[in-house]
Amino acid sequence: MAHEIERKFLVAGNDWRKEIHASHRMTQGYLNNELHCSVRIRTCGEQAWLNIKSATIGSSRLEFEYEIPIQDALDMLGSLRQGPLIEKVRHLVRYRDHLWEIDEFEGDNSALIVAEIELSSPEEYFEKPAWLGREVTEDIRYYNTQLSKHPFNSW
Questions:
Q1: Are 37 and 19 in contact, with CB atoms under 8 Å apart?
Q2: What is the mean pLDDT of residues 128-140?
Q3: Which of 47, 51, 95, 144 gets the highest tally of CB atoms within 10 A of its CB?
């Protein structure tokens, strides 16, 4: 069984930008958004993934992810998607011993920037960079599934 342990934070300021070592444009859409799990398709360049994630609130959730052909992903996003696409640029920033994924949202979620860190256990220690803002791990409004239904700019 695959477990994702992830914490999510808002970003304060722009100092993190000088630490970016890679950026990728991503598009994702949800095929369902049910109470027990979400099923999403994500594309990044010419690659695509099917992702199934438990709808558990908090830092630890079940997650299964499988690479799929890009054309299958585009077909599913075009014909099976529920709600609008989530569009974002994911920036990778290494701080101390951890890799941070900083998602800079576009479209109806523009102006939202969220930093995520994946951990090996809920108790794992990590140093918080100065550019890290308030933690939103437990706030479902910041989950991508919710942003697809209730975009940030409508709050």
A1: no
A2: 96
A3: 144
30 tagged catalytic: yes
pLDDT confidence band for 56 (50 / 70 / 90): confident
Return the CATH number at 76. Answer: 2.40.320.10
Band the pLDDT of 98: cuts 50, 70, 90: very high
Q: What is the pLDDT, as a whole number, of residue 33? A: 67
* Model confidence at 91: pLDDT above 70: yes
Domain, as residue range, for 8 = 3-154
What does DSSP assign to residue 148?
H
User: For the chain, what is the domain count?
Assistant: 1
3-class SS of residue 12: coil
How many Å apart are CA 22 and CA 97, to the nearest integer? Answer: 17
**Number of neighbouring beta carbons within 10 Å of residue 120:** 8
Q: Please identify which of the residues 30, 95, 142, 143 carries the catalytic annotation.
A: 30
Pairing of β 37-44 and β 47-54: antiparallel
From residue 57, how far is each of 5, 116, 138 by CA, in Å? 11, 15, 6
Rounded to two decimals, the pTM is 0.90
Handedness of CA 25, 31, 34, 36 (dihedral sign): negative
